[in-house]
What we know:
The protein is α/β, with parallel strands linked by helices. It is built from 17 helices and 19 strands.
Amino acid sequence: MAAASLGLAALVAGCLWLIAHSFIAQANRQQLNDMLQAAVVRLERQIDLAVISMGELGAQGPYGCSPAVSKAIEDIAFRSVSIREIRVSSPRATCWADNAHEATFSVALEAANPLPAVNPAYEFAPIEAGEWKGLMVRWTNDDGALTAFLATSGLLFDILPAELREHARMEMSLNDQRVVSSYQPEGFPEMQGDFAEFGTASERYPIRVRLMIDEAVVDSWNSRISSDLIAIAGLFSLSLGYLGARGLTRPQTPLAQLDDALGRGHIHPVYQPLFCLATGEMTGFEMLARWTKPDGSSVSPAVFIPLAEASKRIDKLTFALLDKAGAEIGEMLRHNAKLKLSFNVTPDQLLDPLFIEHFVAKISQANLNPSQLVIEITERQPISDIQAALRVSRELSELGVRLALDDAGTGHNGLSSLHALQAHYLKIDKYFVDGVVLDRKSSALVEALISLAKQFGMEVVAEGIETEEQRIKLLDLGIREGQGYLFAKPLSASDLIARAEQNPSLMPQAA
């Protein structure tokens, strides 16, 4: 056994050494692709902010240039780092946030050749107004057009690490190849010879990023193998040699493990309470999935939820959790009609023709009251069929089920999802809550989301509240309900029931 183990270990070690540099090269390329995706997300967020701001203006009624509108567009341009100028145009009037820019930007606007987005109401075009360069975002409807001019010149400079920055060129462009932003170091050679090319595109807007970088720099980046890694590889080789010599069978695939966990009930719900920010009263809870193995170890939801979605097992997972929730906390819900239970459903699940039928059967079997259920639809995934989403939303509303738009401000759908889902709740992502106290831009964006929600008749819920200062600030901004570790982490059913019975109005104390 020892000789076989050592022999196999030596073979594995040799193979690991041969593939190490190949693995590093692959990892380098993945890192570069991730950086390009970060650049795309950076511009997407700027566009999202512009769209939200224009939504605020559009919700005020027919376009015009009243003192209130003029003040609103001045405020938008002032509070945003990325929005350089705002233009309101209708048959009645045309006005600008800063009239000093009118002549220069008007000429640039006339020369623009806009490219439509997936939603044809939105158009994009590169803009050159004197020395200023940026991106035009225009929203057109029956009343006229709202146009935002976004500064894009600094979007790409800090995307790459310093050791790569002097050997690469980056371009951000529209899908028709017109450049919106670019970065190139001084003295960068003409693009010929051994240069690697990388690229990615937005799924929501007609924008893409392209990187050209010296192939030799990519290959040498992160190429040093540390002594710690060598030691770990050696131990791994010995372990693998030992296991191989014992003739262990091949482990289950991740998908087989998921099926086994679903069949054995190893994936179970936990519940994160929602609270009134003013009184501390528990108003409901969000059901989350957890996978605990028999040995006590766990599998991250970030691993098994995407696997369930990709393998078409997400309905089975969702309905299994609802079954368990009905058994665990159904009685508590029935004794307190004010409490609500929310859970996540993907846009693809929602649009499945059989979703409503299966959902109604499942909640009836679990003895759950539809009027106490809230379906959360994440904005991080696109809604492929707006009209179908609207029909499903209406059917659920007739049943008494409420909808929430989760991860608001971070995802694919923006204003279109607000209209399509006719949601009752808008959940503000932890990304914005984290900066609401100290970051003026985060606070302004939260205010914009709250204003937009009010225009659509929605209640706002804040996620990821961790400090008393955040609670107070969110309450001051007009948010009445939230969840986060300040109040409670996700709890088991028994802990949730104990907390509700012990003190349902517990207000967390400031640190």
